[in-house]
Protein: DUF2167 domain-containing protein
Amino acid sequence: MTNAYRLLLSAALLSLAAPALAKGEAPPSPQEQQKAVAEFKASLHPRTGVIALPEAKARLNLGQGYVFYGPEDSRRVLVDAWGNPADAADGVLGMVFPAGGDFSNSWGAVVTFEDTGHITDKDAASQDYAAVLKDMQEATENANEERVKAGYGRMHLAGWAQAPTYDANRKVLVWARDLAAEGEPEHSLNYDVRSLGRTGVLSLNMVDGMSRLPVVKAAAGDLGQTVQFDAGARYADFVPGTDAEAEYGLAGLVAAGAGLAAAKKVGLIGILLAFGKKFAVLVAVAFGGAWRWLKGRFGKGDDADGQLQD
Structure:
């Protein structure tokens, strides 16, 4: 099964149907599933072209090749469709998908901005990412107890799907993690694109299945070029001695996973525990969310205008 974490895949839905069938409830047919997805997609508000992100003092020059969904639509995709806890959508500025695709059959990029302070790249060439990976793997294992308590399966960091690489000209750091969630037949791909600004980092966190690595890798390289900070907010606009500076460099940014400002203070294990609730969950969501969502669409819990019920 490709993209195992996708909550709208038929195989996952069928596997969840067993408890319902035991109670005499019929699972939704493929036609009903398709109708639900089509209705949900039609209720969203995709945008193309230049997307202003005032919170980040930046913009995305997406052209016609990508579509952007704003914060409210993104919350519905992340929480209602993908089954993440509500706080997974906190602070999300939007999501980007390839044009012609959607939240159920293609990668999605979660857009956030972290006010990290200025991150120096002076030591970019000397970063020991092998050591960072080892520490992250250990911390991921240590965080599994908390994941289980929160109701999610164990997660294992298998390794880099792409080792961290830094474009010094564009000020873009890219890396990808190969994540194995227990009980899932395919490893998940978590692809990170970080564009450095004057005092913060714009993050595009892409999720998909490992089988689609070539597709996501190409898209990540392209998306990194769409980011443009406003005049005065660019990396080159940094004013030493005046602007706040991060307490870590590029390796700390990778370890944090999404540019957590308190990375050095919290410590690596604390970082992964904190982000495990917001980001790692995106690639290890509970499949039960799909069944609840589709039952809400077809069951007696629907309201008059077809909105989702809690």
Residues 10-298 form one domain. The mean pLDDT is 74. The CA atoms of residues 4 and 184 lie 6 Å apart. The chain has one domain: 10-298.
